[in-house]
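Researcher: We're teaching a course module on how sequence relates to structure. For the next exercise, students receive a sequence and then see the predicted structure as tokens, so they can try to spot secondary structure elements on their own. Here is the exercise chain.
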Amino acid sequence: MSLGFVVVPEGRAAVIERGGRFRTVLGPGRHLVLPFADRVRARVDLGEQILSAPPQPVEAGDGREVLIGYEVVFAVADPRLATYEIADPASAIDRLTRTALRQEAGLTTAERAVTAPGDLHRTVWTVLHDTTARWGIAAKELELTVSPPAAPGTPSTAQEWY
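Model: And here is the predicted structure for the students to work with:
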């Protein structure tokens, strides 16, 4: 059996399987592999990625709406976990952030959400950081934009969450 090469560019990793089971993670460079035994399961970008959502209407606990937008900076910390634990990390982080924001906004008043967004940020950050760590993802930053809704009659550019 002849040997083959796998070339992994800088800033990326390759997850290798042998016989359908995880074998190893290859870092940047040229690597020898067994052509018919080893296969590249995934090529993973290790660079920071930014996920953002424009301000969306969210109902607070007092029944009033606030507009909440966010930006999450994340990177793959463990290519093996990021490959096998979660199918689409960006989509999962987006859904997780939206769900946590809705849940936490529903526990506070609209006025408190706008005047003291630090409480909302702290709770959502904890959920985001803890959950993504299990997926092999490092959540690096979370930025929230919380504001009251536009006055009636003012054109709104808000989009639906889904």
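Model: If you want an answer key for the exercise: The helical segments are 79-84, 89-105, 110-115, 117-134. The radius of gyration is 21 Å.
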